């Protein structure tokens, strides 16, 4: 899994490419927990390159959500594949995250 983190228009954009399996989830955790969310409360994950996300990856996103929401911020996930979007919807994660699926 590869990550590229940038700041655009007062928000942090995290481009994720690859599979967010157990190993990828730990790498994701290491990078996202290092972000200073006290300055930028809007975090956007671009999932256009994500081919898979397992329960460990979802757990890390929920951990990060708790940190961001506690500071009044929000997380948006963009360009999510149809299959991943369907899975997020089934487990009601679309009620927690702002999700904009791929077109």
Describe this structure in words.
It contains 3 helices and 5 strands; from the N terminus they run ββαβαβαβ. It has helices at 22-32, 55-70, 82-90; strands at residues 2-8, 11-20, 42-53, 74-80, 98-101. The chain has a 5-stranded mixed beta sheet with strand order 1-2-3-4-5. A hairpin with a 2-residue loop joins strand 1 and strand 2.
Structure described in brief:
The protein has 103 residues and is α/β, with parallel strands linked by helices.
Binned, the helix content reads: 25-40%
Number of helices: 3
Query: Distance between the terminal alpha carbons, to the nearest Å?
Result: 23 Å
Helix-and-strand structural type: alpha/beta
Task: Report the major sheet.
Answer: 5 strands, mixed
CATH T-level fold name: Transcription Regulator spoIIAA
Comma- or semicolon-separated keywords:
103 residues; Transcription Regulator spoIIAA; alpha/beta; globular; five-stranded mixed beta sheet; 5 strands
Blueprint of the fold:
Blueprint: E1 2-8, E2 11-20, H1 22-32, E3 42-53, H2 55-70, E4 74-80, H3 82-90, E5 98-101
Parallel strand pairs: 2-3, 3-4, 4-5
Antiparallel strand pairs: 1-2
């Amino acid at each position: 899994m590869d990550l590229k983190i940038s700041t655009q228009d007062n928000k942090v954009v995290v481009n994720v490419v690859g599979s967010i399996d157990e190993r990828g989830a730990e790498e994701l955790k290491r990078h996202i927990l290092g972000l200073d969310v006290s300055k930028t409360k809007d975090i956007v994950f671009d999932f256009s390159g994500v081919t898979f996300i397992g329960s460990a990856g979802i757990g890390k996103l929920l951990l990060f959500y708790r940190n961001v929401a506690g500071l009044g911020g929000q997380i948006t996930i963009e360009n999510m594949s149809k299959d991943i979007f369907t899975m997020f919807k089934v487990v009601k994660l679309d009620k927690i995250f702002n999700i904009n699926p791929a077109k």
